[in-house]
Amino acid sequence: MNPPTALIAEDEPLLAGALRADLARLWPELKIVALAGDGQQAVEQALAQRPTLCFLDIRMPGLSGLEAAQALAEDWPDGAPFPLLVFVTAYDQYALQAFDAQAVDYLIKPVDEARLVACIGRLKHRLALQQGAAQALQDSLAQLRGLLGAAAPPPQPRLQMIQAQVGATVHLVPVDEVIYFEAADKYVRVVTKEREHLIRMSLRELLPQLDPALFWQVHRGTVVQARCIASARRDESGKAQLTLRGRPETLVASRLYAHLFKGM
Question: Is 242 helix (H, G, I), strand (E, B) or coil?
């Protein structure tokens, strides 16, 4: 068996260096193959290196640790063993209950040596029990779904009307006419049956204003109105191809959200 490898994603160089040194001392067989200073770099490095473990800081510039994990789950190559995820966090005790409930390994800043030793023990045990790439991915997907739900911002007043500005004109788009929303850099595409609009808002800001019973997130960058989904066809990779009512294009539901489309 090849020795385990790890990626450390931490935007504070001193903390990243300290964790790397502690791991080298306490788990000398573990090889650190990449250091990343932000979430996007962590995703790119992990996809390139395919480490056994990822230590992800929760709060990083750009993508958070949870968002980076979500991106990895969606973009991970089929058949490759998915890494075990360890989140490094400064969250308070109430928030940590969510991590305990999902059985995800986590470390609290500043990292205590005794806690790190316990974490290493848990990781070694889980690596020994790991039953293939497919099961590792499914376990991580289940954990991420729970964590993303627990970390979701509190709901805000439901949005009824989208105000999309084009030059000096503001178009008023009823939310119930929207077929899907799609992230587009610093904007969100608002797609209706007849046309598209761009609004200067992130999908992260928009989501708490939408009714989750009516609008389903099917990808980290896509939210679809459920009644506008005509069919879902799952492929071998675990993703689902969605056909829509009122639009010709096909959308993809990632492996993280494909569980929404199970036959009754």
Answer: strand
